[in-house]
Amino acid sequence: MADRPAIVLVHGFWGGAAHWARVITELRRRDFRSLHAVENPLTSLADDAERTRKMVRQIDGPVLLVGHSYGGAVITEVGDLPQVTGLVYIAAFAPDAGESPGQISQEKPPAAFENIAPDSDGYLWIKQDAFHESFAQDLPADEALVMAVTQKAPLGSTFGDNVTAPAWRAKPTWYQVSTSDRMIHPDNERRMAQRMNPRKVIELDASHASLASQPGPVTDLIEEAANTRA
After folding, report:
1. What does the alpha-carbon distance between residue 151 and residue 146 come to, in Å, rounded to a whole number?
2. Is 152 within 8 Å of 67 (Cβ atoms)?
3. Are 12 and 68 contacting, i.e. CB atoms less than 8 angstroms apart?
4. What CA–CA distance (Å, rounded) separates 11 from 183?
5. Which of 28, 48, 52, 129 fits a disulfide with 40 by CB distance 3.0 to 4.6 angstroms?
6. Per-residue pLDDT of the chain (230 residues; tens, 9 = 90+)
7. Is 67 helix (H, G, I), strand (E, B) or coil?
8. Angle at CA 146, nearest 5°, toward 71 and 214?
9. Distance from C-alpha of 7 to C-alpha of 156, rounded to nearest angstrom
10. What is residue 81's DSSP assignment?
11. 229: which residues sit within 8 A by CB, 6+ positions away?
């Protein structure tokens, strides 16, 4: 379908653009031709939002933003760009104005909260020996090990960065809840989804890494969003 929007995939904390690998291959199999995955620095919401804006502005035509985890906060911040047609949240933060991912997590801490540890430079890491159980318990141990060793740590201060004007208040949205998520409490995901009045919510029996463990249903949701007219 030539009239479908470009897809821009936005990763979250402890991972990079390659976390979208299985979704990317599935989207291409379904004949999505304009696929982009931003690599954000995870140094501040402002930095990550600006990097994502630059990618979106390089694309001619409409864009569908898809955010995983903290990437949801990023698409919430940049989704007001006029060419953005919709927002898809994959086990993701969707803060309101003046709200941060850290604030949301503190209100209802996730199961693996204690497995996040700061280093002496202010970056936050998931303890390597706890990564599998914390982030990706429904993936094979070898895959989780690679994720653990290659994890991209955010600056801890980024957790406290507030969204300014949430795009989900004005743009069509879709949301995927991971019911076995140990990095964002599933009830927080449900609450964030409910208040944005999305076009569709799906719940998957998945870890935080649903984009890797269940790429088929995740891609189904993205495809439905891409095929929906405002």
Report:
1. 8
2. no
3. yes
4. 14
5. 48
6. 458 999 999 999 999 999 999 999 999 999 999 999 999 999 999 999 999 999 999 999 999 999 999 999 999 999 999 999 999 999 999 999 999 999 999 999 999 999 999 999 999 999 999 999 999 999 999 999 999 999 999 999 999 999 999 999 999 999 999 999 999 999 999 999 999 999 999 999 999 999 999 999 999 999 999 999 75
7. strand
8. 55
9. 29
10. S
11. none
Residue at token pair 């940049």:
78
**Stated pTM of the model:** 0.97
Q: Which residues of 90-122 are buried (b: 16+ CB within 10 A; e: fewer)?
A: bbbbbbbeebbbbebbeeeebebeebbeeeeee
The alpha-helical segments, DSSP class H, found in 58-173 are 71-78, 101-107, 131-135, 141-149
* Contact (Cβ atoms closer than 8 angstroms) between residue 139 and residue 209: yes
